[in-house]
Amino acid sequence: MSIRINVTVNGVAFSHEVEPRLLLVNYLRDVLRLTGTHVGCDTSSCGACTIHVNGKATKSCTMLAVQADGCEITTIEGIAPSDDELHPLQEGFRECHGLQCGFCTPGMIMTAADILQNNPNPSEEEIRVGLEGNFCRCTGYHNIVKSVQYAAHKMKEVTV
Amino acid sequence: MIPVAFDYQRAVTVDEAIAALSSGDGKILAGGHSLLPAMKLRLNQPAKLVDISKIDALKGIKEEDGEIVIGAGTTHGTIASDDLIKSKLPFFATAAALIGDVQVRNHGTIGGSLAHADPAADWGALVLAADAAIITKGSSGSRRVAAVDFFQGLFTTALEDGEIITEVRIPVPAEGTKTSYQKFSQPASRFAIVGCAIMKKADGKINIAFTGVGEVPFRDSAAESAASIEAAVTAAAEGITVMSDHFASEEYRKHLAKVYLRKALEAVA
C-alpha cells in the first residue's frame, strides 16, 4: 500500500507516494536528500534526528512520513535566514566550540531553537534540562550550553 | 530499523476510528511514541494502523460537570503547561513535565500512555491517586472505567477489542486539597523506577499510588490507612510482587518506594 502525502519542508511544498512504514527521517534523508538530519540511535533516545513539525521539536525517527501529511517541517537546512547567513544558534555553536565531531549538532540546534522559542531567556539549568533528549558524546555539554546562551543573547539584540 | 509493512488509515472522527478498528488486526496510532519503537523492534506487528492524531475532538482540557476532562489525544507537553491543570491538579503538570524529553512530550499522549500500560509509565499512579475515570468508546457505546479497575496486568488494561480511550475525567479537587508526584527516573529513558503520586484531601484522607514498583500501578491501601508518615513508609509496597531488573533490584526498588513516599508525604504535610 502507498499513500500520497503533501508536506512543506523548509518552505518548499512536496508531494510523494510513500509506504506507510517509511519513517519521516528516511523520507527527509532518502527521498528529499536532506541529509543534515541524522539517524543516531534510531530508538528516540539520542535526539540526532530532531526536526520541527508544525514548529515543535520532534524526533523524526519516531514518526511516520504519513503522519506528517499536511504539516510544515523545518530541518537544519532550513533554519538559517539565507544562504550566506547563519542562524544565531549555528553561529553560537561555531563561536563557542559547541561541537567536536558534529554528529549531534543538527539535533541540538533544532531542540535549542524550540527551547528559545518558548523561553527566550533560559537559565543554564533550563537549557540543560531542555536538552535532556539530545546526547553528545564529545563535548561534555558545557560548550553546547554556552552556544545556546550565545544565541539567546544574540537573538535578544536582534529583536531589540 | 524498519517496521513490518502495514496498512494505514487516518480517522478524522472517533466513530470512523472505531469502524476502522472493527475489521482486521488493527492498532491505534496516537502520538506513536510507545507503539512505533515497539514496531521498529518488531515486537509488535499490527496489520493496520488507525491514526487518530488528527481527531480534534480527542484533544484539549476543560472543566465540565464538576470534573476536569482531559482528551485522550492531549500531549504530555500540553498538560504540563495548561493553566487549569496547574491550578486544579498541579501534580498532573509536575508528572507531565517529567515524562521523556521535550520532543517526546510534544507528541506522546495521555490516552496512548494509559492504553499501552507500561508498568513504569507515570500516568498510572496519577489517575489512581486522583480517583480518575477512563472513558472508552467502542461499537457498542461508551463505558466509564474507574482507574482502579483499568490496569489489569503487565501491558494489559480493561480496554476491550475495538475500543479506544476518549477521555480521562478527574473529579475537581475540593479547596484545600494538596497533591505531590515524586519520581526517581531511569537516567536514560526517564521512565519511572519509582513514581509516587499522592492526593491529600481537605478532610485529611490521603490517596497513595505507585508506578514502576509492581507489574501494574496500584493504590497502596496499607500505606493510606497508616496513622503517621513513619507508619505509612513502613507499610508501603509490602505484600506485592516488586519488579527487579538490571537497573534496580527488588530490594532497592522497594527501598526507593518508601523513600519517595516519604518525600511525597512531607511535600503535602
Structural class of chain B: alpha+beta
Based on CA atoms alone, the radius of gyration of chain A comes out at 16 Å
Q: Could you name the CATH class of the largest domain in chain A?
A: Alpha Beta
Average residue-wise pLDDT of chain B: 96
CATH fold label of the largest domain in chain B? Uridine Diphospho-n-acetylenolpyruvylglucosamine Reductase, domain 3
What share of the residues of chain A does DSSP label as strand, in percent? 15-25%
> Helix count of chain B?
12
Beta-strand residue fraction of chain B: 25-35%
Low-pLDDT residue spans of chain A: none
Q: What is the overall shape of chain B?
A: globular
Largest sheet of chain B: 5 strands, antiparallel
Name the CATH homologous superfamily of the largest domain in chain A: Beta-grasp domain
Largest sheet of chain A: 5 strands, mixed
List keywords for this structure.
A: 160 residues, DNA polymerase, domain 1, 5 helices, 5 strands, B: 269 residues, alpha+beta, Uridine Diphospho-n-acetylenolpyruvylglucosamine Reductase, domain 2, Uridine Diphospho-n-acetylenolpyruvylglucosamine Reductase, domain 3, Enolase-like, domain 1, 12 helices, 26% strand
